[in-house]
Amino acid sequence: MIDATNIRVTIPTARHGDGRPVSCPIPGAKVLLLDLDGTLVDTLPVMQRAWSAVQQRHGVAVPFAHYRQHLGRPFEEILDLLEVGPAPEIHATYDEAALENAELATVFDGVEEVLRAFASAGWVLGVVTSKPLHRAVPLLGRLGTPFAVVRALGDGRGKPAPDPLLRAVLELGVDPAQAVYVGDMAVDQEAAERAGMHFVLAAWGYGDPGAVPPLTARTPADLLHLLEQAAPCPTAAGRPR
Fold first, then answer.
1. Is 42 a catalytic residue?
2. pLDDT, tens digit, for every residue of 179-221?
3. Annotated catalytic residue: which of 35, 37, 184, 222?
């Protein structure tokens, strides 16, 4: 178990125009929702193999680096942004290759211990991902932590729309303002803000903060200290709306 009292994390404090710090506590938050890829599990090697299969089988010239820039969105939406198609055939190839290479995925160091610590402290845990459920479930099984809700790719809009996050808290019967979403991509931040949730950037993941720098955890262990404190707000404009 990780002792949160021994964790120290430095967070840049946002300030008003007159120099006063902007305070943004997370009062009463007891629901922790997390992204999967790049936050809980390192699946980048799997995605690289799967995209390579797409390139070889369908003659796609778009490099993986371009695909990576859009991680966090539904797969078909990424293909549209990259102007790659036809989507059903490419999706089938990607899905098949991802399943064949699933053993390359690894849990980020410290994630399992942190999840157990939050669960022991009474937090309700959930996962919101753009990965299809049949590929998400085996990865979640490696974490050894029960999740009260799992929202995977399905009907309706995906991130950066707030829909999957709102469905998660609706299923749990809590207000969005009581939830914290942890993710590594700008689309995660946008989805959380549009859903009216607090957001923490998982800096160990694949992306960069959005236009408004979010609260940041450099390692999974940082989350314990970060979420137990009255954390500074990124900017006044960055508060959940």
1. no
2. 999 999 999 999 999 999 999 999 999 986 666 667 899 999 9
3. 35
